[in-house]
Each structure stands twice: as C-alpha cells, then as structure tokens.
Design brief:
Structural class of chain A: mainly beta
Number of helices of chain B: 0
Order of helices and strands of chain A: EEEEEEEEEEE
Number of helices of chain A: 0
Strand content of chain B: over 45%
Largest sheet of chain A: 6 strands, mixed
Structural class of chain B: mainly beta
Helix content of chain A: under 10%
Helix content of chain B: under 10%
Distance between the termini of chain A: 40 Å
Number of strands of chain B: 11
Oligomer: heterodimer
Chain lengths: ~110, ~110
C-alpha cells in the first residue's frame, strides 16, 4: 500500500515569501491531488496531476513520476493562504475516488 | 461556481443510534464519494458510487455503513448503530467523470457520537 509523506508538517512564513511543500509516495500512481483544507474544515481541490506541471494564479504544482515526488509552490504568499495543504494519490489501477492521503502541511503566513 | 452541499454541518447522536448524512452533489456529476477524517488524523476514503451502485469501498466501510442515491439529487451515507469511534468529519465529494480530474468536496458534516 502506498505511503504518502509530506514535508514539512508545519510551516510559518512571512507575507510575500515563496513557499514549497513536498509530497513523496512509495508506489506507482495514476494521479496526484493537491488539496487545501481551510481552518473551518472544508476541502478545496487545487490541482490534479498525472505528469508535468500545472499553474493556477500564484500556485504551481509539479510532479516527477520517476522520483515519486511532487511539490506545491506558492509565490508571493499571503495570510489568506494559511491553511492545511494535503497531498493525495490515486494508485495505479485504483478508482478515481480511492485516494490515499498525506497528513497535511499546516501553513501559517504572517502579515 | 457549482458546489457540493452537505447537511447537517454538525450532528450529535447517542451511541447505538442510526444517523444519515446528506449530500447534494453537483448536478451534472455522475461519480460520488464519501471520506472521513477523525480529529487530528488523515482523511480516509470510505466509498465510491456510480450508476446507483458501489464501485469501490475501503476496509472501513463495513456492514455498519451504507450509501444510497434516493432521488436524482441526494446522496446519503447511513451509519447504523453508531460507535464512539465513528466521531469524525465526513466529507462528500463528486466528479463529472471517473477519469483523472479534480474532485469537488462538500464542507463536511462533523459527527459527534456521545
């Protein structure tokens, strides 16, 4: 079974800083999701990746299939980016919703 | 933007009671999912549902749990004879197709079993 590891577990940044959150997994996957969980608990899907790189606004997600590693970058961070960021993978051959989740990275951006 | 809606946002029940958690997926979505997150722990997959039947379920989803799409809009998770360890945040999600795409999550139902 896949092990999904995220680093760091906690991250504090100053507003404007460039942020990187890492995710590694142990077994081949067909897709990787980056999710944002707000302080109130709700989850928002940021990206779904199966290869390469995706960008949306100040967020960039990359994946290296050979190295079994993905990164989420936030440029020009802002206090409203404060949330828990979760990496989740769909194993090769698994159904779309059957995801294995990481523990999350708690990001706090200070003004 | 279309949303997945979950009700209630909070549910308190006594141990041994049955609860039904409700979800209204996005209207043109065909695939539906339930997840749970015990306080302080990872999110866990429970079940996926398509074409009025379960397409995949996890080890957690035992006979205590059932899902149903009783009409064209609702998707429910029933937990029979609740236990203390069922206390968790339960998330519903939906997607348009079963292929690699983003999932749309509801805001969750916090279930507390006393």
């Amino acid at each position: 079974k896949n092990e999904v590891e995220q680093s760091p577990q906690n991250l504090t940044a100053q507003e404007g800083e460039f942020i990187t959150i890492n995710c590694s997994y142990s077994v081949g996957i067909s897709a990787l999701h980056w999710l944002q969980q707000h302080p109130g608990g709700g989850i928002v899907s940021l990206f779904m990746l199966s290869s390469g790189k995706k960008k949306h606004g100040r967020l960039i997600a990359t994946i290296n299939i050979q190295e079994k590693h993905s990164s989420l970058h936030i440029t020009a961070s802002h206090p409203r980016d404060s949330a828990v960021y979760i990496c989740a993978v769909r194993e090769a051959g698994g159904s779309q919703g059957n995801l294995i989740f990481g523990k999350g990275t708690k990001l706090s951006v200070k003004p | 933007e279309p949303e997945v809606t979950q009700t209630p946002s909070h549910q308190v029940t006594q141990m041994g009671q049955e609860v039904i958690l409700r979800c209204v997926p996005i209207s043109n979505h065909l695939y539906f999912y339930w997840y749970r997150q015990i306080l302080g722990q990872k999110v866990e997959f429970l079940v996926s549902f398509y074409n009025n039947e379960i397409s995949e379920k996890s080890e957690i989803f035992d006979d205590q749990f059932s899902v149903e799409r009783p009409d064209g809009s609702n998707f429910t998770l029933k937990i029979r004879s609740t236990k203390l360890e069922d206390s968790a945040m339960y998330f519903c999600a939906s997607s348009e197709t079963g292929f690699n795409e983003k999932l749309f999550f509801g805001s969750g139902t916090q279930l507390s079993v006393l």
